[in-house]
Amino acid sequence: QVQLVQSGAEVKKPGASVKVSCKASGYTFTDYYIHWVRQAPGQGLEWMGWINPNSGGTQYAQKFQGRVTMTRDTSIDTAYMELRRLRSDDTAVYYCARDGGWYQLLFWFDPWGQGTLVTVSS
Amino acid sequence: EIVLTQSPGTLSLSPGERATLSCRASQSVWSNYLAWYQQKPGQAPRLLIYGAYSRATGIPDRFSGSGSGTDFTLTISRLEPEDFAVYYCQQYGTSPPLTFGGGTKVEIK
């Protein structure tokens, strides 16, 4: 079945960077866009951006421009999200999610990875 | 940016009852590009509805979506014990950015 499996929890100090991975299985990785969404503790969902695994093209939410980079490695069907210059308010669960469209962006998400907790604390 | 306002914040109901959740947009959502997700504690969100009314694969038919323009509704016809969760709406007609509502918690009365 279609599955996204993310890397484990991270603890980082303010100013550091974190890189979260998202390994896809059960489908052709390059056929579907991957999005990243985060959720601060007890809060709602916030979209960060997407990557096209086929071309490597990306689009980021304006809020994260300059701090986030999304990449992929098609040899191992894995997408990555790196967030730099971490602050305490970046503490959140970070999710990857597959776009609903085959070879196109439909901007609804199914399925989601299990989430990766990133804690930023001095 | 389109702001999505969900109401009520919390809905207290008993199993077997009908749940009606509202999602109101600050501007018209283009082509009814609206989705609903369910999230249980400690789990990732799960897609329920896309395109305002299309059920995702494997979603029971007690879940239904309706609405257009700025007003959308998720209805759960008869609540099952596993339906008690937080529900989020999401618009994607003016991406980027796409936005989520603040969520409605459906709790056991």
Q: Could you please describe the fold and organization of this structure?
A:
- The complex is a heterodimer of chains A (122) and B (109).
- In chain A, the strands form 2 sheets. In chain A, strands 2, 4, 5, 6, 9, 10 and 11 form a 7-stranded mixed β-sheet that branches.
- Helix content of chain A is 0%, strand content 49%.
- The mean pLDDT of chain A is 97.
- With 122 residues, chain A is an all-beta fold.
- Chain B is an all-beta fold and 109 residues long.
- Chain B is built from no helices and 11 strands.
- In chain B, strands 2, 4, 5, 6, 9, 10 and 11 form a 7-stranded mixed β-sheet that branches. In chain B, strands 1-3-8-7 form a 4-stranded antiparallel β-sheet, with no helix packed on it.
- The N and C termini of chain B lie far apart (35 Å).
- Classes of the chains: A mainly beta (122), B mainly beta (109).
- Chains A and B meet through β5 and β10 of A and β5 and β10 of B.
Number of strands of chain A: 11
Assembly state (oligomeric) = heterodimer
Strand-residue proportion of chain A = over 45%
> What's the story with the biggest beta sheet of chain A?
7 strands, mixed
Count of runs of 4 or more consecutive helical residues of chain B: 0
Major sheet attributes of chain B = 7 strands, mixed
Topology:
The complex is a heterodimer of chains A (122) and B (109).
Chain A: E1 3-6, E2 10-12, E3 18-25, E4 34-39, E5 45-51, E6 58-60, E7 68-73, E8 78-83, E9 92-99, E10 109-112, E11 116-120
Parallel strand pairs in A: 2-11
Antiparallel strand pairs in A: 1-3, 3-8, 4-5, 4-9, 5-6, 7-8, 9-10, 9-11
Chain B: E1 4-7, E2 10-13, E3 19-25, E4 34-39, E5 46-50, E6 54-55, E7 63-68, E8 71-76, E9 86-91, E10 99-100, E11 104-108
Parallel strand pairs in B: 2-11
Antiparallel strand pairs in B: 1-3, 3-8, 4-5, 4-9, 5-6, 7-8, 9-10, 9-11
